[in-house]
Amino acid sequence: MNKSVSLTEHLQHFFGFDRFKGQQEEAVKSVMDGKNTFVLMPTGGGKSLIYQLPALLLEGTAIVISPLIALMKNQVDSIRGMQAEDNVAHFLNSSLSKAAISEVKNDVLEGRTKLLYVAPESLTKEENIEFLKNVKISFYAIDEAHCISEWGHDFRPEYRRIKPIVEEIGKAPVVALTATATAKVQHDIQKNLGILDAQVFKASFNRPNLYYEVRPKVKPEAQIIKFIKQNEGKSGIIYCLSRKKVEEIAETLQVNGIKALPYHAGMDAATRSGNQDKFLMEEVDVIVATIAFGMGIDKPDVRFVIHYDIPKSLEGYYQETGRAGRDGGEGQCITFYSYKDIQKLEKFMHGKPVAEQEIGKQLLLDTVSYAESAICRRIILLHYFGETFPGNCGNCDNCLNPKEQGEAKDEVVRALKAILEVNEKYKGEHISNILIGNKTAAVKSFKHYKLKAFGSGKDHDERYWNAVFRQSMIKGLINKDIENYGTLKVTPQGHEFLENPTSFMLVKNHDYEEEEESAAASGAPSGATGGDPALFGMLKDLRKKVAKRKNLPPFVIFQDPSLADMSIQYPVSIDELQKIQGVGQGKARRYGKEFVELIKKYVEENEIERPDDFVVRTVANKSKMKVFIIQSIDRKIPFEDIADSKGVTLKEVISEVEAIVHSGTKLNIDYYVNDVLDDEHQEEVFDYFREAEDDSVEKALDDLGEDEYSEEDIRLMRIKFLSDMGN
C-alpha cells in the first residue's frame, strides 16, 4: 500500500484524480506511516485530501477537529458524494438531535465511519471523551490549526485544550493543517500540540492568479456597486468587520439590483446555512459576510473578494483573499482602506491585557504597512510568511500603477523633534496642528504656540504630517502608546535617526484618511469615484448665484458633498436629484430646478454617458427613526427624552435631526433651543451663520468662544438656522 503506484491508484479510485498536487503525496505517506505531520498549504492547495485519503485507507476512525459547523457539514457532504455509503463520514456537534447522535455513535463503534468531524467544544464534553475511549482512532487531524495560536488571526482558546484531551482519550498520531501561518504561529502550533518532531510540509504562498489592490475608502458603496456591475454574474465575497455593516451593505446591494445575501454569526443557523447554500448553488452572486464565513468553503470559482474594512491582521487578509480564484482562474482582491478604521480597531484594544495589546498592535502595524506601501504587494505578503519573491509581480496595483515617492528626511526630523518637545505626551493629530501652526483650542490651552516646533511644518498640510507619522511608525522610528490614548513616543531607532538622519522616501498620493465625509467636506469631488471637476466648479458658481439671490449662505442651498455627488452621478431630473447624498424631496423641489437644468445642458454639450446604474440607491432603514424624531419634535418632546426612548445618545439624535433638515424638511425646534440658550446667545449664533462662509462647527466654536458655547449649542443653532432660512 505504501508504493507510490498504489497510492495514486487509491487517489484515482476515491477522488478521481490521476496525480497528486505539489507535496500532497509525501504528506499522505507521512500520515500513512503514523508520523506526526504539520501541513502548511495555502487555500486551494488540497490540504483536506492529506487526511481524507489516509483515513479511508487506515484501520480505525480518524478524528477531525474542525472549528465551524458549516465547515464540517461541507466536508462531510463532499466525502459522502465520493463514496457509496453515507456513514463513511459523520460530524458530531451541537446541531444534531439525540437520535442523530446515537446513530452517529453506533456507526463509529461498528467501524463503518472512517472520518468523524468534531468541534473542539464537543470534544471537551465528558460523555464524548468516554465514548471516544472505546473507538479505535487511526489519527487526529486538527484543521484550521492556526486557531491554536494567540498570534494566529483566528485565535480560539478552546483549541488550546486539544492536547490534554487527546492524551486522555488515547494517543495516536497528530496531523495539524492550516492555510496560513508565520514562523511564529507554526512554532506555537507544534509546541502546543506536542508535535515539535512533526514532519513539516510547506507549500509556496504565492497565488499568481490573484490580483491585489488597496483603494482609499471614499464612497465605498458606490465603488463596490460599480465594480460588481462591471463584473456581472461573477461570484464574489464582501467582508465587513461588523454584523451591522454586513446587513447594511447586503441591503444596499439588493436595492441596487444585485443578487446578494448576508452571513454572520448573529443570524439563526437555518438562515445562515440557507444563505451559504444559495451562494454555493449560485442562486445569489454575492455574499456579504463577517469573517465567520468562508473557512473551508470549497467554491472554486469565486472571482472577487472585497474587504469593506481592512482586516485586523495580514494572516486574516491572506486567508480571506485566498478564497478567490481557487480554480486557478481570475481572482480580484480589492480592499478599502482608511486610517480611521485602524484607529477604531486600536480603540477596541484599549483596556485589554498588555500582552494582548502588544500582539494586536504589531498585527495592525503589519496591516498598515501593507496598505500604505509603494512596493509590490506580493513581496510584502510573501515576506510576511517567510518567503522571498523576486522583483515585481505585474499583478497588483503597485506594480501596474507605481506610486510616487518623495524625499522626506528633513520632515521626519521635524516630526520627531516636535514629539520630543511635548515630552511624548500627545497624539499625532495635536502634533500635526503644532507643526502646521494651527492655533486650535488645545494648542492654545497648553500654550503650545510658544514651542520651537510651532509652525515649523507649515510648508505642508495636516494630511502630509499624518502620513509622516504613520510611515515613521511603519519604519519603527516612533510607536503609539495605545494604553495612553495613542500618544506618540520616539523609539531608540528614532533617536538614532535624529542623530544621524538618512534618506526617507515618503509614499505620496495617499488620501488614505479620506473617508467619505472628509473627502466631500474638503470641497472637492471624491477622487476615487471620479467626480467631474469642471461640472463641480459650475455647480459651485450656480450655488453662489442662487445664495446671493435668496440672501442665504451657499451651504444652506446644498452642501459640498451634495455638489460632489452631483458631479459624479449627473442627475438630470428632480426625481434623480432626490437620490443624491444630502438632498431630499424638499430641497430638490425648492432649489433643484436650475441645478438639474445646468447638469442636463452640460451632459448634452459634452456628450457624457451617464452612469444610470451607478446612482446608488440607499436603503431607507433609518426612516422609522426619522419619522419618530419628526413626530416627537412636533409634540415638543425634549431631545434627551427622544434619545432615552430610542436608547441612543443626545449627539446621535442631533445628527439625525441635522440629516432631516439638510435634506430639506422644515423642523421647528424653538421649544428645545429656548430651554438651552437665551435670546441674546441665539441671536449671536444666528447672525454668525448668516455671514459665515461655511457651516463648520469647529470654526464657529473658535470664533464665538468655547467658554461661551458647547458643540451641541452650535449644532442646535445651525439646525434652527438651516431650517428657518433654507427650508
TrEMBL record:
Cited Pfam families: DEAD, Helicase_C, HRDC, RecQ-1-like_HTH, RecQ_Zn_bind, RQC
Q: Where is the Helicase ATP-binding domain?
A: 28-199
Q: Which SUPFAM superfamilies match?
A: HRDC-like (SSF47819), P-loop containing nucleoside triphosphate hydrolases (SSF52540), Winged helix' DNA-binding domain (SSF46785)
What EC identifiers does the entry list?
A: 5.6.2.4
Query: Which Gene3D superfamilies did the record assign?
Result: ATP-dependent DNA helicase RecQ, HRDC domain, P-loop containing nucleotide triphosphate hydrolases, Winged helix-like DNA-binding domain superfamily/Winged helix DNA-binding domain
**What keywords does the record list, in alphabetical order?**
ATP-binding, DNA damage, DNA recombination, DNA repair, DNA-binding, Helicase, Hydrolase, Isomerase, Metal-binding, Nucleotide-binding, Zinc
Give the family per the record.
Belongs to the helicase family. RecQ subfamily.
Q: Which GO terms describe its cellular component?
A: bacterial nucleoid; cytoplasm; replisome
Q: Has UniProt tagged this entry with the keyword Nucleotidyltransferase?
A: no
Record's InterPro entries? Answer: DEAD/DEAH_box_helicase_dom, DNA_helicase_ATP-dep_RecQ, DNA_helicase_ATP-dep_RecQ_bac, Helicase_ATP-bd, Helicase_C-like, HRDC-like_sf, HRDC_dom, HRDC_dom_sf
* Principal EC category: isomerase
Name the Gene Ontology biological process terms: DNA recombination; DNA repair; DNA replication; SOS response
The GO terms describing molecular function are: 3'-5' DNA helicase activity; ATP binding; DNA binding; four-way junction helicase activity; hydrolase activity; metal ion binding
Per its UniProt record, the required cofactor names are: Mg(2+); Zn(2+)
**Protein's recorded name:** DNA helicase RecQ
Q: Which domain of life is it from?
A: Bacteria
Ranges of residues in domain Helicase C-terminal? 220-376
- Respond yes or no to whether keyword Cell wall biogenesis/degradation is given for this record: no
Instruction: From the UniProt record, list the reaction(s) this protein catalyses.
Output: Couples ATP hydrolysis with the unwinding of duplex DNA by translocating in the 3'-5' direction
- For the HRDC domain, which residue ranges apply? 529-609
